[in-house]
Design a protein that fits this description.
Order of helices and strands of chain A: EEEHEHEHEHEEEEHEEEH
Strand content of chain A: 25-35%
CATH superfamily of chain A: HUPs
Distance between the termini of chain A: 57 Å
CATH topology of chain A: Rossmann fold
Number of helices of chain A: 6
Distance between the termini of chain B: 54 Å
Structural class of chain A: alpha/beta
CATH superfamily of the largest domain in chain B: HUPs
Helix content of chain B: 25-40%
Order of helices and strands of chain B: EEEHEHEHEHEEEEEEEEHHEHEHEEH
CATH class of the largest domain in chain B: Alpha Beta
Radius of gyration of chain A: 21 Å
Largest sheet of chain B: 7 strands, parallel
CATH architecture of the largest domain in chain B: 3-Layer(aba) Sandwich
Structural class of chain B: alpha/beta
Bound molecules: flavin-adenine dinucleotide, adenosine monophosphate
Strand content of chain B: 25-35%
Oligomer: heterodimer
CATH class of chain A: Alpha Beta
Number of domains of chain B: 2
Number of strands of chain B: 18
Chain lengths: ~250, ~325
Amino acid sequence: MKILVGVKRVIDYEVKIRVKTDETGVETSNVKMSMNPFDEIAVEEAIRLKEAGGADEIIVVSMGEAKCQETLRTALAMGADRAIHVTTDAELQPLAVAKGFAALAKREDVNLVLLGKQAIDDDNNQSAQMLAGLLHWPQGTFASKLEFGEGKLTIIREVDGGSETLELDLPAVVSVDLRLNEPRYPTLPNIMRAKKKSLEALSPEDLSIDIAPRLKVIKVTAPPKRKAGIKLETAAELVDRLHNEAKVI
Amino acid sequence: MRALILAETRNGGIAPAVLNTVTAAAALADEVHVVVASADGKAAAQAASQVTGVHKVLVAEAPHYAHALAENLAALVVELATDYDYILAPADTYGKNILPRAAALLDVALIADICDIASADTFVRPIYAGNALATVQSSDTTKLLTVRATAFEAAAGEGGSAEILSIEAMPEFPGSRFVSEEFTRSERPELTAARIVVSGGRGLRSKEEFAQLDGLADCLNAAIGASRAAVDAGFVPNDYQVGQTGKIVAPDLYIAIGISGAIQHLAGMIDSKVIVAINKDEEAPIFEVADYGIVGDLFKILPELEAALDKLEQ
Ligand SMILES: Cc1cc2nc3c(=O)[nH]c(=O)nc-3n(C[C@H](O)[C@H](O)[C@H](O)COP(=O)(O)OP(=O)(O)OC[C@H]3O[C@@H](n4cnc5c(N)ncnc54)[C@H](O)[C@@H]3O)c2cc1C
Ligand SMILES: Nc1ncnc2c1ncn2[C@@H]1O[C@H](COP(=O)(O)O)[C@@H](O)[C@H]1O
């Protein structure tokens, strides 16, 4: 089995972001960048599957600016076999990302695509679903457990009411949720080894995909800020305030 | 302008978030339709037809609509899309699963999780866990949107009398099969619709100790929520998680107990009307957004809080 895994380079989840004063976006210079946390889980899952003898090759893909190659090297150091960088400085929206992955899924003739449930920058939560639609493949979103059988896959998904189990024929697209696994850290020897692994750069034109944004970003603003309230000493005081002042109980 | 809402059926009715979605749709379109796809959609269609602001309800019934697989429902949305300017669904796990697939099949963008409508083609959506708001403009002729329910008032569930129309189901997608579901059953109000939410974090220490929140939730007729750390540690099931990657809530009162207040958690509850924090660490970031805070040991404060509430009741 051949697996394609998406890795997006995003602002690290611990960074407190700042909106640019000209309202064109979020400050990214001199800000720590990392692999989208959900994508670490996707890479980890692919590696575990390979270690268990269930996969032959793991290809990691990142779309975006030149620095995405650092993120791809991290995925290679975790244990992916090779990397593809779809190089562009253009703004990428989920439909464009899905088109890129659809073209690569066909080019590489993969059996499974693993993406994150959502990129923690734009919080879109849609690339995997879009990709599955473009390919007319089964989709398994928000996965917290995967089990592979002959030509098929059983997935447990986290949904609002609890969880749900589906069986999907392969090839399929899966988006992974937080509780699927705990990703490993790359070891130093593996970081060295990753430098020699293949990293191919392609342009959107090479893939014949239209990546033009469909949504125009008019502005990006900071949300209204909540003010800190008051500290109380006792539970009785709290109940009194909630009843008589806030009037919520 | 015409809008179509994809409505999830639930307990013989429609999901509560559909009511908020109707309000968003009514701000965009003069005609609002609802489509219900289910194995047996009559009761849900009936419920949808009574919602104030809904003009027509379409019902597609087929055994393969029983478990709302995205593959089957996206195909139905695509089939209906030509008649509409807007297609909406709540931004819950139902809408987020189905609408992006439909959008890709229609070759249009999906505008996810809108929290405000600026104009007929311009929408506001939270990004970076709600730490920024993006205003985006769409040039697609059919606009697909998922709606953040907490940002829009709920339309009245009665008062309407929309016409109900049966429509044909689309063929079943062969590659995906429903196996089973494990739904958390609870007598409590639904987390996203509750007026009061009591939420616990890692500070609760264990599954058994987390259960101490039950007493407080009983006193207040509250729903129970949790931080990711509490869910990951197995104190409660995944559907309790509030936050950037869990549920978005905005109750009148949110009580955070033993929760530090990471931005990913705040993303899910920051729009609550009144926030209370109980935490032993006075530096915990949750206090920066709390209207009322008590610094102290939650295991000591919880029983005192219950006692004070009991006293209030008498
Ligand atoms: C990609 C990603 C997505 C995420 N999504 C979410 C999400 O949707 N929701 C979410 O909640 N988190 C999410 N997180 C996790 C988030 O970053 C935090 O790790 C998490 O919210 C911490 O949970 P907590 O506050 O319960 O635990 P901690 O941060 O460990 O805080 C526990 C708190 O309990 C207090 N405490 C301990 N004992 C007591 C006591 N006896 N009495 C009083 N107070 C006590 C401590 O002072 C501390 O403040 C996400 C993280 C990532 C990377
Ligand atoms: N530019 C990108 N490069 C690689 N993968 C991406 C990119 N954008 C999105 N993805 C993948 O799609 C998932 C969901 O992203 P989104 O739909 O934008 O929330 C991410 O977790 C990644 O796996």
